[in-house]
């Protein structure tokens, strides 16, 4: 992802861990897609009066659920079954930064979602680059491109509803917070 906003690149050790236990990564990836679809539904439910947001989140919820369905197909091809979701410490910790108050809450939800999508784009691209040529590699290349579009979508939505200076200042703060969280994450065969 050449134009990534992220302040800290994912380490090679993370990619090595994923490739060493790809089955676990696939199971975690499925859960992440399902949660992303749920987050989009939550956003459109929370802001029913924001027309652009509702339309975008309805489309996003469907797309993320489609990704979930595709990951489940890969899981089943490998003779695996899906497992119960686990708590995603990265997302939970980043969401602790979300402030209370109508406008700042909306801003922080959009920006944290954008950052999570940017991190996903970076990591799915790393997975794609590490996989042998073939259908699974193409799938992860496609997922990485989708995540990049999603990161841009959340930033665009912020621009529809909020002041550009406020967005820029908070974007910088949250990118720094996210880099600190990533630096402390354990290396594991999971998206985060």
Characterization of the model:
It is a single chain. With 192 residues, the chain is mostly helical. It is built from seven helices and no strands. 33% of the residues are buried. α2 runs antiparallel to α3 and α3 packs antiparallel against α6. The chain has one domain: Up-down Bundle (Ferritin).
The total beta strand count reads 0
- Rg is 16 Å
CATH class: Mainly Alpha
Query: Residue ranges: pLDDT <50 for 5 or more in a row?
Result: none
Mean pLDDT: 96
CATH topology: Ferritin
Query: From the helix content, strand content and strand pairing, which structural class follows?
Result: mainly alpha
Secondary-structure element pattern, one letter each: HHHHHHH
Distance between the terminal alpha carbons, to the nearest Å? 17 Å
